[in-house]
## 1
Amino acid sequence: MSGNPAPRRDAPDGRGQHPTPTASRVATLRDALYAQPAAGTVQRSVRGPLRVAFWAALRAGLHLQVEGLRHEGPSVVVSNHPNLIDGLIVLFADPTMRPVARWHRNPMLRVGMWIAASLITTTGTPVTPHRGAYASALAHLRAGGRLWIAPEGGWQPTLTLRYPRTGAVRLAHAVGVPIQILAIVHGAHPGPTLATWRGWPRPRVLLRWGPVVTTTGDVAADIDAMMVALGRACGATWRRPDTTARTGDAAHE
């Protein structure tokens, strides 16, 4: 999209130099405190410090790295979903994003969703346009915000991407914003499980900014372009649905 600002490196300062790791961490903590959606003073004063505390715990338990170019301005950011807490981990790459998260029965996970200022949905981003999470997500994008969505739906630690929901593409179409890839790579395996998790050495988690996907208005074509780019960025396999086989079967019915 020609009107989109050029991407920039995530870390440079105003002189075109890259700040020290300590300066980058301070900037991340600063953004965690101030880059929150509109909320009451009490909510902001509680949520900001909780984000900082959570990220301090993440840094103590994980070796987090961010690489690549982040697109500036409103956009829909999409990722693979190898771990249950990805909605909080990705905020380390961009604290200004609002995750779209599915409601969960676990109260601790619901607290995490609140810390992340997530848009909560019970059905994904529904087809009915003016309801629930979809309407809130549209309003956030139109106000110049950024969204994070895991289009596969629930988390799954495999190297084969599942067929996605259409919400990310439909939101990008509705507002006229691009889609950017943010790959999540957990060390040598796609996502930690109780069998593979080790506290030391700290597991490495790489957040890799991938390409910007300019949408065409064709939902199926844009989903395919998005998933191809996501698979390449995170090292996973995307298998296109075999519509030809289904068409052939239907012809013989």
## 2
Amino acid sequence: MTSIRQLFSLQELDLVLDKIQTEKSGAEQELNARLALAKMESDLESEKDKLAETQSSHQTFRQESETLKERVPVLEERIYSGDINTERELESIEQEAGHARKQLDDMEMRMLELTVAADSFRARITELETELEVQKIAWETRHAELSDIVNRLSSEESTILAQRTELASSVDQVELQKYDLLRKKKGGTAVAKVERGLCQGCRMSFQPNICKRSGRVDRRSFVTVAAECFGLVDCIHFNELPFNYPFKTR
């Protein structure tokens, strides 16, 4: 026959397990995430992509400007050669030469901007690479710490689980199922102590004759209250009385 004290002891183990498993889960998530390194690596790749795009654009403008540099002198030579016979043809060539010179000026300005941008990206890449190396060293230390934490918590978890399994085997299985359901319903606390006549879990108030530690105790009343709570109404009450639930009523 299961006592409330047994369930309270079982809950103490479960609460320790909850804490261990929460801490272990957090350490494992940090191990798997590598958040700081992952973000820095992503930023580094982004800067490298920007640099590559900038260099590609600069190369394209450079090639086009080389073509224009060759084209402009040819047009200017035609303008001043004296070989043009009509005013209309001369005007057309002058417009073409002016347009080519403007294009060349625009390209040279754009190439200058791209050169400045590329220098900025290179500086940022160097900065990120240096910082990444520092972070990798720090991560190696943190990784070792987290691995030790996970190993320690796994060992503690195994020990507590073994103790819980042993204790749970002595608990009536029907009552154990009710206890497990109540723990889920109440967010981890199924068994609550009664202190000064007040349940610390559901805040139910008990009559003094039920909660007193000595003298005559109204067992029938206490059993009724405990049985109601054991039926998942609120919680299972534990008053550390000199007798255990359930009792046989007279």
## 3
Amino acid sequence: MVDRGAFDVSSASGRTLLFSIPGRERKETGKMSGRRAALKAVDWLAFAERVPPNQRAMFNGLKTRSDAIAARLRSLPETPAPIDWSYYKSAVANLALVEEFEKKFTALQIPEPVDTQTSKIDTQEQEANKSAVAYVEASKIRIAQYEKELEKLKNMIPFDQMTIEDLNETFPETKLDKEKYPYWPHKPIADL
């Protein structure tokens, strides 16, 4: 069994470990039941810090349901109580039936469910990472454009000292086309 790792999220208060992420493999340090691991998988304080105020009620409902399920899991024993076959052999008249049940019970192997969702989640995570990288790159381009425009605004003549010619030179989109539209407002009527 491989420990699947964790998504490490640091908050302003220094808390980490918001939730587990499949695909982050580490060496196995010890065997822990899935039930006990599930109880420790969510740092609710770090999670609550990231919940917007308009979604607080949904978050509280999720936390309540999760706490109820966790309490039910904690109330159950780690392993089921063993069956006392000797008692049943002495109490049941048909000994062959008890021995058949015991043989079938000991031969019973319940397989672990096959994980069909981790690969889909990993694919979605990779797509989200690619999308995030593309968004960051596009944002850097927009930031450069905005910084260039900001520099232009910082270096221009103050508005109270500008003439119409200065305004049209600084902001070409404000220039009226008197040749194409000789009558006032010197713009197409549709643009008004």
## 4
Amino acid sequence: MTQTTEGAELCFPQLLNSSCRKPEPPRSEALLVYILLFVISLLTTVLNLLVIISISHFRHVNLHTHCAVLRFKMTFAKLCYHKLNWLLVDIIGNHINKDDVFCHRRELHTPTNLLLLSLAVSDFLVGLLVMPVEILMTLSCWVLADLICPVYYLLPFIILCSSVVNMVLISCDRYVAICYPLHYPARVTPKVSTVCVILCWVYSVIYSVLILFDNLKHPGRYNSCHGECVVHISGTVDLVVNFLVPVSIIILANGRVFVVAVSQARAMKTNVKVRVKKSELKAAKTLGVLIVVFLMCYSPFYSVALTGHDIFVGSSVEVFMVFLMYFNSCLNPIIYALFYPWFKKTTRLIVTLQILKANSCGAKLL
């Protein structure tokens, strides 16, 4: 927002010389844009909620555990579980649904699923909390205290930072699964994946507080007038820490995965025995598309920092690039729908309320 001129409608009329102008009501063309943004926000929320339910509920949604050793372990574990559960039923008399209990204990804690679940939670929060507030902020004045402005921006910074780190973790997961398939079950365990997800969110909180520390210490410093919410971040620091370093890891990991995938695909055509399953290669390709879309959505925002300028989030110039980053959260579940048949099936079961039936988590999806 710019400073006022005499006669303009002000956010704070009592502050004649320092108040921002009220945003003009959107015209018909702009109104359509805002409606579209709200639809994208709703779509982002719903689609990612479907992903969260799909991964959490259905036991056959398993994107990576195709190793024979791990299948043996899971089969043996299920056998032991059933024996123990029947013993408990005989002793206590509770009629526990064995399949439902097992599938909820089992598939939610698979390594790749946990990483995708963490990413889906980030994207879900973008659609539910971040995008609606950002849209409303472009339509009205900031009427809350100056301190609330940087405190609010902590949320999108934490969520977007966690999305970047989740992409790094997913790339590393695919790297180990494709390049070291025999060692994957031992190196990437559910416990390791859980710790990585926790560290991802802890790191995101710490980084966001540090990058916004000056704004928290001196709220309102970068506002040009009363009635706007603008925060300043060091473009160079954010570019290196939150983009260049993660993207370098992502490109290196996926580059290696691509080389191995191509060699394995050629070996399959020549009937040479390979150690990587076709499903693993397909998962690698799908996640590769996920990474490319991620880079396309995030690169414009960080291109500002590449020019040597700092970033003022909340200014009109940055609005488009910020929403492009948010749009990535809507595209991720669409990619799942296009490339993962299981997501289409789980969506149909969820929408038709089939998940409310007994043993629904054991539905055959693959």
